[in-house]
């Protein structure tokens, strides 16, 4: 069975500066992991700022090319995706969710337009009924509906609601994989769990695999099936989430965990009920 995603010895080096001040940064160094296509999971990439998480995420999304190594989606090397048609097909299967929902949307553009555009672009929807039906179905997966979002501008929503719309937009093409780069770090702390729980629902109810990128061990512990911990571009620890976080062995992971565990425990004990997706209209 072909893997959904394979990251094979992926590395990325950035070079900046001129002839005399050349500066080389090894952002990602020889990262290996794979996600099966048989069972959806939440795979988490943990690391502090500058550890290479976002670069790795961009390589998985095919917006940054590895300097060496390769990334395969359903067995196909992303480097071979060149035509517009192939790129659209790939983007329909692998969708991003970014950190800041306020930056993801133009403040002057109504939110429903983003969903309609995704329906036309990725699903080939042409009629108004089809476009609206797809938008509504995606919004219902995150506990919203088109009636609640139609005609509204970004400033009319809270950060948490906006991030749910951003997730809904990513869900329009029914992707197999969502790559979520720090999706809750800009969200009010009281709403974070709602978003994090949503990823669990996507996995369990809608069969979507999630690559969840975070520096936050508490949410990682709560939702991840497996994880890798990155430091300076390298994977320093990997495995089933609970096993790694309950008994970290690398000095960096131990340090990370000691810094946040008391908060994580308190938070875990106070988890709110999981939000339910709404049935289709
Ligand atoms: N386009 C670029 N040009 C040069 N260096 C870069 C570029 N993008 C990232 N880097 C460098 O690569 C390293 C890894 O950055 P990256 O953004 O992937 O880490 P991160 O773990 O996602 O950090 P953060 O959470 O702060 O975004 C950093 O040292 C960063 O400065």
TrEMBL record:
Gene3D superfamilies assigned to the protein according to its UniProt record, in alphabetical order: P-loop containing nucleotide triphosphate hydrolases (3.40.50.300)
Record-annotated ABC transporter domain positions: 5-257
Keywords: ATP-binding, Nucleotide-binding
Keyword Heme in annotation: no
CDD domains, A to Z: ABC_NikE_OppD_transporters
PROSITE patterns assigned: ABC_TRANSPORTER_1, ABC_TRANSPORTER_2
Keyword Mitochondrion: no
GO molecular function, one term: ATP binding
One Pfam family recorded for the sequence: ABC_tran
Residues in the signal sequence: none
SUPFAM superfamilies linked: P-loop containing nucleoside triphosphate hydrolases
Source superkingdom: Bacteria
Protein name as it appears in the record: Peptide/nickel transport system ATP-binding protein
Taxonomic source organism: Inquilinus ginsengisoli
